[in-house]
Amino acid sequence: MLTKDPNERITIRQIKEHHWVTHGGKQPLLSTEENCIDIEVTDDDIQNSVKTIPKIKTLILVKSMLKFHTFGSQTKIERIRSHSQPNIAPEIHETSTGKAADIWALGITLSAVSLEKAALNPQLEDVILRMLTKDPNERITIRQIKILVKSMLKFHTFGSQTKIERIRSHSQPTSHQK
């Protein structure tokens, strides 16, 4: 796959049809549009959503959200407002939305996916808490997320604060919210 000779590299089609990526080579991956349509969770579905969303499809959805930045459009925001009020980024209620709101949405998605486990990975928890910082100007950026995730994968360590200290530091109101 990572060979220098382009003729020897595996193709995208071969990746999509590989048995690790599909269900035994029988069910090919959904397109980005199919994933976005296929995975829509309302408040009524929230209890069962983590159990019904396959991990690989969820990761593909998150990857496509990062790649195409397709999760901040006005129509989708209006749909989210009508379905899941607690999961909306605080600044959505104001006039402007942007990348910070998208980071919030990604944090909500990752936290829903990670809650499938009994205990949350402390490294992942720290990244999620930074994504869910109330002040959009203080919220972590895509670039910072990529750096942190890359360092977590490389060193398998992240942060020295305890879980309670991380939660306290990220849940403190900002000066303009007081």
What does this protein look like?
The chain has 178 residues and is mostly helical. Helix content is 52%, strand content 0%. It has nine helices and no strands. Helix 4 (55-68) packs antiparallel against helix 6 (99-114), helix 6 (99-114) packs antiparallel against helix 7 and helix 7 (122-131) packs parallel to helix 9 (163-171). The longest helix has 16 residues, at 99-114. 13% of the residues are buried.
The portion of residues assigned to helices is 40-55%
Q: Which spans of ≥5 residues are poorly predicted at pLDDT below 50? A: 32-41, 45-54, 68-85, 156-164
Mean pLDDT: 59
Through-space gap between termini: 53 Å
Structural class: mainly alpha
Topology pattern, helix = H, strand = E? HHHHHHHHH
Radius of gyration, CA atoms, in whole angstroms: 18 Å
Keywords: ATP-binding, Kinase, Nucleotide-binding, Serine/threonine-protein kinase, Transferase
GO molecular function: ATP binding; protein serine/threonine kinase activity
InterPro entries: Kinase-like_dom_sf
Protein name: non-specific serine/threonine protein kinase
Fold blueprint:
Layout: H1 12-17, H2 32-38, H3 46-52, H4 55-68, H5 74-83, H6 99-114, H7 122-131, H8 142-155, H9 163-171
Helix pairs in contact: 4-6, 6-7, 7-9
Structure characteristics:
single chain, 178 residues, mainly alpha, 9 helices, 0% strand, elongated, non-specific serine/threonine protein kinase, EC 2.7.11.1, ATP-binding, protein serine/threonine kinase activity, Kinase-like_dom_sf
Describe the structure in brief.
By secondary structure, the protein is mostly helical.
